[in-house]
Amino acid sequence: MTKDKSMPVCCPACLEEGTFRICDFWDTADTPDIKERIFSRDIFRYRCSECGEEILVAYDCTYLDRDSGSMIMLVTDKSDDTIIETTEYNLRVVRSINDFVEKIALIEDNVDDRIVELYKIMLEDQFEDERPGAKILGIYYGGKDEDGKNLVFFIITENAQNCRAMLSFDVYDSISRQFGESAEKFDATSEINRDWAIGVLQNTFSDNQK
Asked: Where are the domains of the chain?
């Protein structure tokens, strides 16, 4: 069941102490509109009653989609390496609001997040070759293009000169074939992220050199 509770919040603008009504467990069966509220970040948006300042507040919460057999957990304590096991659902653990939103979007579009994370590393290398000195702050999935033939990614940079990239399904399938065996060796973890992808790529290249 969906669970509600409150948490204290201090407004960064006026330092007024307030209370944020949150939910730490979302079940799509109980709350059909939760996907839209997550994509809009509404469930993380706090508005100060004193000055009107709006901020995004990350907090530990779990999203359950029984139809897809998926569970996404946002764990805000990055030092928390507790191993969470579930045999009933395909579990993913993330550490930020953006990653939480992205994982749910990938589920909606039936896109394998493992391939996405591998592609992001490749995209980083390509971007750095084309734009030496540019610093990437993040790469995020942006859905399918209008024709449904490509996956769209947004590259967020330090100097705000953001851009986007396209991943065709042909390349998507190629990545799956090339790194599938290595990916399976690392499939025990619930955190499929940049570090995971680097480990898979290093393992693949190491095996190829043997």
From this structure: 3-108, 113-208
